[in-house]
Amino acid sequence: MKILVVADEESRYYYDHYQPGRLDGVDLIVSCGDLHRSYLEFLVTLGNCPLLYVRGNHDDAFAEQPPEGCTCIDGDVFVYQGIRFAGLGGSNRYRPDGVNMYTERQMRWRCLKLRRKLWKYGGVDVLVTHAPAFGQGDLDTIPHRGFRCFLKLMEKYRPRYMLHGHVHRNYGFKIPVTRKYMDTTIVNACGAYLLEVQSGKP
């Protein structure tokens, strides 16, 4: 299965300079948040495949107008071709009025609620978040600090992949695209990233 993972910045390759056929062979699109509604609708239409998404800290409008044709997996588990995707959107809270911002305690509670669904599905193969995990590609500033509870999820369920955005790679020269935490390959999908997995065995 070929998965196109997108986050934070519209890809010129897949949008501004799109040419017919560029999404051929893509079986699934996953958005890690902070992308315009029109961009997601464009991708799901031209890609002719499902698009799963979590909300980023700038996606407050999605509560009123979610992107059409796309499936929100925020706080939920979605199984596609045998692969279990679990979603937790939002970022660290850095202002009081952010709908998709959470304190560490609030996100930990969201993780606990998600665990009930993970038990039902027997675990997770791909963890989809907007923010990174603490110490795994995050920054020292409060807005871009990762969540410690995401580490606990990876330690307990050992997903093969964690996909996130939020930390733009142009924030620094040493921000890697991929890294490893225990059994999990972490992907910073800012922009666009193509991931190939075996159906049922990521």
| Most strands sheet | 6 strands, mixed
Overall 3D form: globular
At the third CATH level, what is the topology name? Purple Acid Phosphatase, chain A, domain 2
Q: Strand sequence of the main sheet, in spatial order?
A: 5-6-9-10-12-11
What would you note in describing this structure?
- With 202 residues, this protein is an alpha/beta fold.
- It has a single domain, classed as 4-Layer Sandwich (Purple Acid Phosphatase, chain A, domain 2), CATH 3.60.21.10.
- β5 and β6 form a beta hairpin.
- The radius of gyration is 16 Å and the shape is globular.
- The mean pLDDT is 93.
Primary descriptors:
19% helix; six-stranded mixed sheet; Purple Acid Phosphatase, chain A, domain 2; 202 residues; alpha/beta; 3 helices; five-stranded mixed sheet
Brief account:
The protein is of the alpha/beta class and 202 residues long. It has helices spanning 37-47, 104-121, 148-157, and strands spanning 2-7, 28-31, 51-53, 71-72, 77-80, 83-88, 91-92, 101-102, 126-129, 161-164, 178-181, 184-188, 191-196.
